[in-house]
Amino acid sequence: MFFGQHQRRARFGTALSGMVLLAGCASLPASGPTAKEVLRGTEADHNAIGMTVVDIDNAVVARVAATDAGVQAGVPGLVTLTRSGRNDTVGPGDQLDIAVFEVGASLFGAPRGSADGYDPSAQAQRFPTVVVDRDGAIRLPYAGTIHVAGRTPGEIEQLIERGYRGKSQSPQVVVAVKNNLSGTVYVTGDVRRPGRVELSLQSERLLDAIGIAGGSVAQTQDMVVRVTRDGQQVQQRLDRVRAASPDDLVLIPGDRVELLRQPQTYVVLGAANKPSQVSFDQSNLTLAEAVARAGGPNDAAANPRSVFLFRYDPAPEAQVVPGTGAPPALSKSPLAQRPVIYRLNLLEPSSYFLAQRFAMRDKDVLYVSNAGINRTAKFVSIINQLFSPFVAARAVTGN
């Protein structure tokens, strides 16, 4: 009877220990939810923002690729700054060198040569540097005020010659731009030599101006170029601007070019070997490369069947909330931001091929789910640490 009572107490103690163990497992800290908990969060009772879980397969990879192409095509490029202009004209602030060549009777000097005052040789009168005023005009002796803004040096020569007609015999005028302040663009931001870039008759393009300014301070894939023209502002990632392409704008006076360092990144959380914020460091990054940069799943803690990618998706890849058959309650706008969770099973060999074709996006969150057994293992480890000194003491004392 005593033996039976002892067995009942032992069974009760075992059951109580099991309940304590389970309760302890549930309360242990973890780096994030298990796969089961992630899926539970998408159920109607817990899904306040309309999350949808989508398993990555061939069809999903194709839809995501098509969406990326559509989004990229829909982003206004630099080519939308279509207004053309000229960089061979004069404007306020420009400095001009002006010379007037005269033959025969001279307006600006005493005649030389024959007694009748005629000199067959040409005489030149060079004026001090002439600055175009804020109204776009210059003032010359005997010619008066001449409006030159928006005109080429050749056109200005004709205007000055017309002003001296009847006052000088056969005047010929030569105009050269000494300092072209109006025909410049401003390159600022994350470039090595920010400042003003003077445009020439070579019709410098956007990438030319950036090169003249010393280039960007970081890799092109980490940079955004912003161009302001006539109050309109458009920006684009610098690595997407190809030389001599429509986005490689022919610059016009007054353009402002700004380079901003905005690297594309993604965040790694959960049971990965290296949770961190990771920079793309290249123009395009695949899911397979992203997992590799995170060190892959942790063998001791991760559930490789459920590697999740969290993103706000601008296109309706996810159409149905799992278990409900109903679409998520989201905006009807075609560009509505939809919270989508993509799931990759790394125990399936085909997943490695799919991951090579699945493109990452800026600000994606890669989450490696915790294995459910991991919490039990943590609890057992804690128990072992608590009781191992007593076990060692009993082994030494023999009690």
From TrEMBL:
Localisation per UniProt entry: Cell outer membrane
Membrane topology: Multi-pass membrane protein
Keyword Hydrolase set for record: no
GO CC terms, sorted: cell outer membrane; pore complex
Coiled coil (UniProt feature): none
Keyword annotations: Cell outer membrane, Ion transport, Lipoprotein, Membrane, Palmitate, Polysaccharide transport, Porin, Signal, Sugar transport, Transmembrane, Transmembrane beta strand, Transport
Domain SLBB residues, every copy: 185-251, 265-368
GO molecular function per UniProt: polysaccharide transmembrane transporter activity; porin activity
One GO-annotated biological process of the protein: monoatomic ion transport
Principal location listed in the UniProt entry: membrane
Polysaccharide export protein N-terminal domain mapped to chain residues: 86-178
Annotated family: Belongs to the BexD/CtrA/VexA family.
Name of protein: Polysaccharide export outer membrane protein
Species: Sphingomonas gellani
